[in-house]
Amino acid sequence: MKKQFIMxxxxxxxxxxxxxxxxxxxxEKKTAKEVLQELPETLIAQPDAxxxxxxxxxxxxxxxxxxxxxxxxxxxxxxxxxKLQKTDEEPLAETMPIxxxxxxxxxxxxxxxxxxxxxxKKLAVMNNVKAHLTAYYKEAGVVISGQELTDKVNAAxxxxxxFSTNDGKTGQLYLINDIQTQQSNFxxxxxxxxxxxxxxxHVAMVQYVRYTYxxxxxxxxxxxxxxxxxxxQETYVDFTKKMLKTVHIQ
Length: 250
Prior knowledge:
Blueprint: H1 2-28, H2 32-42, E1 57-60, E2 63-66, H3 69-74, E3 76-77, E4 82-85, E5 106-114, H4 118-140, H5 146-155, E6 157-164, E7 170-179, E8 183-193, E9 201-211, H6 230-244, E10 248-249
Antiparallel strand pairs: 1-2, 2-10, 3-4, 4-5, 5-9, 6-7, 7-8, 8-9
């Protein structure tokens, strides 16, 4: 009789504990929208523990970087870069730093090692900026001198700073405005020199694209820059830096 009483008591206690756990799980369960809203902050960090996974890693060439897994699902990885379209539409809009503003419509990410020094790779990027500005002024019907064009290209680099990844790799980070007639690009360019190998560098470039639909092209291309407000630009830069911190070279 005593044994039966103990068994019944244990059964009741076990049932109570299971019920309590189920109720707790129900209360802690988050909606899909709540999860999506947290993605920008939670998915720019490495998993704390558990089995290795590539679900949140953008792998290209001999490098990888942690990104939102939804980006990998919706984006397209080509031989040259990773393209993510319609970032101002759901569900991707909720993964952007300022989802309600919908500032950016597309993202391009380039990861890879090139046989160029950081200075030469930077020059190649700035030559593209120069070509875009030249075409812009031509279409706008504005004539400027070669020196004026050079000055404007140099001014397109709005900030430069030293940068270190979580792995301890150090290099230079550049913030660049790249403006065209049909779109404006905000480039965050990270160049990491290859230690002990001159003429080789690792490139991680994130380019935010905002399409423009102006019927009349303004004389000053800065009127069409991606970020009009400094606080919005700073928010995107901080968001991008967190991703670039995770850059890993195989």
